[in-house]
Amino acid sequence: MPRHKGPLLIDTNIILECFRVGSWRALTGGYQVETVEDCVTETQTGFQRRRPEARIDPGELTGGLHAMHPVTDGQRAVVALRAPDIALDVGERSLWAHALTRDDAWVLCGPDKASMRFGVRLGLRDRLIALESLFVDAGHRPKEALKQAYTSKWLENALGQFLFSEGLGRS
Question: Percent of the chain beyond pLDDT 90?
Answer without folding.
Answer: 83
